Each structure stands twice: as C-alpha cells, then as structure tokens.
Hints:
By secondary structure, the protein is an alpha+beta fold. 36% of the residues lie in helices and 27% in strands. It folds into 2 domains: 2-116, no CATH class; 133-203. 25% of the residues are buried. The strands form 2 sheets. It has a 6-stranded antiparallel beta sheet. The chain has a 4-stranded antiparallel beta sheet with strand order 6-7-8-9. A hairpin with a 2-residue loop joins strand 4 and strand 5.
Amino acid sequence: MASESRRRRAARRAKPGDGHSLQRYRWWQPFSRSLLHLRLAGPEGRVETWSVDLRLGGDENGVVRAKLYRDGVNQATSKLPAAFAVPGGMIEVATSGYGLKRAHFVGDDGTERQLSPDPASAEGRRARLHRRAPGLSRAIGGVSIVVLVVALVLGVPQLVEQITQIPPIAEAIGTFESPIHLPPWANISLVVGALAASTERALRLRYNWLLDGGLFDGED
C-alpha cells in the first residue's frame, strides 16, 4: 500500500513533454548524465523505444528532472522520484546522492525489469565490463561493499561522538565517547573511499539505505 501510494504521488508530478528530440550521448557526460532505454510493444503491436534522460547536475535551479522520450521524442518531464505511465505499466526513476538507484519498468502484473543503460554512458560502460569480464566485475562489486562496511563501522562511532557533543543533545542524553579515533588523513581517505564505492554501485543501479545512504548521503 505504501509503495502504491508513493507511485501515485510520483505519477502526479509528471508533466507533458514539449516534443523536443533526444540529444545523443556525448563522451564528456559520463558523470553528469544518465541515459537508459526500454523497448516495449505499443498499442498497435509496433515496438517502441522509451528512453529516460537525467542531467545529474540539475537545471539552472539545481533541480534534477527525469525526461521521458518515445522513439527520441520528448513525452513527459518529472521531478524525482519519477513515475511515468507507458504501455503495460510504469517506468520508475529515483536517484541517490551518487547517481541512479532505480530505473525500472514495473508491469501492470507486478513484474519488474531494469532499463538498459545507453552504451556510451558510464552505466553502459560498467555493464559492458560485467559482460566482458564477469569475474573482475564481481570482484570490484565485492570491494565496494567491503569499503562501505568498513566506512560504516569506523565512521559511525566518531560521528555519534561529534553529534553528542552538541550542547543541547549532550544535556538531553549525555555524551558518547567513541572507541575509535582515526587521524584526519584516515577519515578523509574513509570518506573518499565511501564516495567512490557508492558511485561504483550507482553505476550498477545498486542501492542499500544503510551502505549507500546511511552515513554520507545527505539526501537519505
């Protein structure tokens, strides 16, 4: 029920498109733009290509919007999280602070299918690595998880200590002394490693609220 309610709210955010053409993905856009595609049979049985384009840096107001295209023609635009009605179901799109965390087609029968990233995009290149070298791809994914777990275990106690030193909080619940105290260079390395690991996972549309959002992602 909660998921269906969120989907309806997201669908209401979608606005009609203006019919402009989808721009080709450029080589300099790998970390500023995400582009994904889905092929669906239309009402008359003709296969159509539905595309979702996101400029991750946001518009002139800093707002990230998802744009929906059918066969390269803009059909709708929405703030995130977005839900677009397409033949046979909905396309749902959401981001974290590191990139995409969801871009799925949800059929009317409840089945889900992830959209395919454009081959020229960063997500597409990461998918190509997985196809060509699945062992290496799994190893990189495993390292990302380990880095995030280490960052969580070492970072949370220090963060809690800093929070409980804020006077109003200290007066209300007391202070907490972290058993872990890392030098500044180690904490900086921890943050950089966590950012890199979460970005790698976002390229695969992998997201966990604790690993990818619980410590460093301000949006979650």
